[in-house]
Design a protein that fits this description.
By secondary structure, the chain is an alpha+beta fold. Helix content is about 40%, strand content about 30%. It has a single domain, classed as Gcn5-related N-acetyltransferase (GNAT) (Aminopeptidase, 3-Layer(aba) Sandwich), CATH 3.40.630. Strands 1, 2, 3, 4, 5, 6 and 7 form a 7-stranded mixed β-sheet that branches. The relative contact order is 0.15.
Length: about 150
């Protein structure tokens, strides 16, 4: 799924979210998907291709895209979110709650990429790092609970 951030009707950023079965993922080796899928079969989200225009990188677009991609992953029933990032972006993703879980690797055309993982329901880690994704998780849990009560 491709998500788009708009400002005044103009695209300013995008992110891709691939949820569920990752059998054909080009990222199998980077994330060691064979191992992860043993523990979380069909419940992995890979967030990739995050791009925001330079003049919008410190505004709402970046935050809105990460929250929307996380919400999409939750709605698709995933338990784990994965992101590959450059070393200079590691602090930004750690503030969201992602943690590096294995060694990085050199990817031609991209340089060093670090594999990061987030337990989608670990509110403790999100609270500890003051992640803006915690609110997204709380809203999702609350709306899911309300939907079950109404069913």
């Amino acid at each position: 799924m491709l998500l788009l951030a708009l400002q005044s009707g103009m695209p300013v950023g995008t992110v891709r979210v691939s949820c569920g079965n990752q059998n054909s993922s080009p990222y199998r080796d980077l994330y060691d998907l064979d191992e992860l899928e043993q523990h979380f079969p069909g419940a992995i989200a890979i967030h990739s291709k995050l791009a925001v225009l330079p003049e919008h990188r410190h505004g709402r677009a970046m935050l809105a895209l990460t929250q929307a991609s996380f919400r999409t992953a939750l709605e698709q029933g995933t338990k784990i979110s994965l992101i590959g990032c450059r070393p200079d972006l590691l602090p930004m993703y750690e503030k969201l709650g992602f943690r590096q879980y294995r060694r990085g690797c050199l990817i031609p055309g991209h340089g060093m990429i670090l594999p990061l993982k987030l337990d989608n329901f670990d509110a403790g880690v999100m609270a500890e790092c003051r992640s803006p994704l915690l609110r997204t998780l709380e809203d999702f849990v609350r709306s899911s609970h309300s939907a079950r009560l109404c069913a």
